[in-house]
Design a protein that fits this description.
homodimer; 9% strand; transcription (chains A, B); globular; 3 strands; Arc Repressor Mutant, subunit A; DNA-binding
Chain lengths: 117, 117
DNA sequence: CCGCATCCGCTATGATACTG
DNA sequence: CAGTATCATAGCGGATGCGG
């Protein structure tokens, strides 16, 4: 039975979706990963790329990403730490691409036409 | 300039990601869409497919999905309403597939190996 | 300047009971 | 069956300020 053809609402599927959401959900984590997709960056660089994020949230979310083995912190010296994606983190790239494309589409279709959400 | 080659952290990209996340974020909305991917369903059917969701949350999230034009409610009679995805909602299918596959991978790689998050 | 901790309000989510 | 109303609460996220 091919995975992609089996009932979309099976509980195994829901479980997988739940797992993925847990690792990645919230306002910031996807954006942090997107910011790191091309190359390792330092705290402040990431912070500058993500509009609206506070140091506090960036710090917290980076930690969660480390726990989930998506981001690896390479502390050279103190105050010189760099953050980079693990291979596993990089495996999110297709997902992020999809999200990006869909977001563009969604903006065109829905946002702006109704001024809400 | 090809979209997939341009800097991943450009603010336009971040904006798209933000738009997508807004439409879809939270614990439940992706799962609700997944539950509706194959065919229209009624309130209770959806609720039964999504482990842990309460009537209250399902009601609230369905409303948000309607506002974002992802789900359409076809009220036949009262107490016989059906929910189905709009075309726009269906356009999330590749994203959900990606999420699902990645979630499976993530569970194998990370969850269970460390019992956390 | 870099990252993190404390304090705190607010929003998202939950439990439960109720209505048509 | 298909929701809504009320109440409670954990965690998110912002402001600010501390310690390298």
């Amino acid at each position: 039975m091919k995975e992609n053809e089996c009932p979309l609402y099976s509980s195994k599927i829901m479980l997988s979706i739940g797992d993925a959401l847990e690792a990645v959900n919230g306002k910031w984590r996807i954006k942090i990963i997107a910011a790191l997709l091309d190359e390792p960056k330092r705290f402040k660089q990431i912070s500058n790329l993500i509009d609206g994020i506070t140091d506090r949230m960036l710090s917290i979310e980076l930690k969660k990403l480390e726990i989930n083995l998506l981001v690896q912190r390479t502390s050279k010296y103190s105050s010189q730490a760099e953050y980079e994606l693990t291979d596993h983190g990089r495996s999110l790239k297709p997902l992020i691409m999809e999200l990006m494309n869909w977001g563009k589409l969604h903006r065109e279709k829905v946002i702006g036409k109704q001024e809400v959400l």
